[in-house]
Structure formats: C-alpha cells, structure tokens
Amino acid sequence: MLSSFAAMISHRPGGAADPPRNHPPPKAGIGHLRRLRYLGRVKFVFNRAMIIAIACGLAACATDNMIAATAPVGGRFSDNGKLTLHRGEPCTSQIMFDFHPAGSRSVVWLAAGAHDSQKLTQAARQRRRVRISGVWRKGRHPGCTYVDVTKLAVETTWWNKIWKQ
User: Fold this and answer.
1) Of 22, 40, 46, 109, which is the most exposed, with the fewest CB atoms less than 10 Å away?
2) Count of domains observed in the chain
3) Higher pLDDT, 122 or 46
4) DSSP alpha helix (H) spans, 63-157
5) Long-range contacts of the stretch 69-72 (C-beta < 8 A, 24+)
6) What is the pLDDT of residue 130?
7) Looking at the DSSP assignment, which residues form a beta bridge with residue 97?
8) Looking at the domain assignment, is residue 39 inside a domain?
9) Is residue 70 assigned to a domain?
10) Residue 15 falls within a domain, yes or no?
11) Is residue 120 pLDDT above 70, yes or no?
C-alpha cells in the first residue's frame, strides 16, 4: 500500500515521472545564524573588556604614588638614596633634584650650590647612590619645603672599587 502511494506522488497525472531535482544546499539554519551572532557578541564584549583592562593597567602605572616629604624648617636632613632630575615646575627656582631615600616611597626635593649641583647632576645621570646631608628650607609657596644640600658624598660601586684603586 505504501508503494502505490509513493507511486502516485512520484508520477504526474499524465503518467510521466518527475525529473530529478537539483536542490540547492540547505541554507544556514536559524540556529546557525544565532550561533554566529552570539559569537560576534562574545568577541565584541571580550575585546572591549581587554581594552578596558589594558587602559586601567596603563593608568595605574602612570599615576605618581610618590609623596614629597616635609619636615620642620631649619631641621637637619641626612639620608642615602638615589637621585633624579626634577621634572615639572618646582615650587621654587632652587629645586633641581628629586631625592629618593633608600627603603622609602617618598621624595625629597633638593637644592644645591653650583659645585654640588654638578656632582648631583652627574650622579643622577649615572644612577649612582648618594649620601646627602642638609637643612630643610621653606619655599615661596605655602607647603613647599626642600633640603638645601650642605654635604654630599657619591657612593662608589663594588665595580669601581675593583678597577679604581
């Protein structure tokens, strides 16, 4: 019975059989399109999240967490650490160096005379450790204090001790 039904469907009323049809390949199903849209959204969210994470990381590295150290004016200062040239506009014209004491995140602003200033500039460029002694002074602006260098010693490295006896 099933075979006669199939024969009725497969034959035309005139008795001729249907020619075989070349069906195009099935189009992407609705599920496939949904999957592609979902993957596109996931990529978009992931890319945005990565951009935000990188921007936050760069912003965290760019912030200057160093705090300028202060003390009472006229007090003595003596410490060892490293120097950098002061960048930016200081609160007074004498400040030329940032002193980073060993084992501290604070910064001490330094001012020095011409002879000491040459030594400090050379030590800053060579990234050498120095021993600084000085007196705290007050700048023109409120809250601006710095150390006026009175004594300076550039520490020698073990490499220099070996070759420069």
Assistant:
1) 22
2) 2
3) 122
4) 114-125
5) 69/101, 69/104, 69/106, 69/107, 69/108, 70/136, 70/143, 70/145, 71/136, 71/145, 72/136
6) 92
7) 85, 110
8) yes
9) no
10) no
11) yes
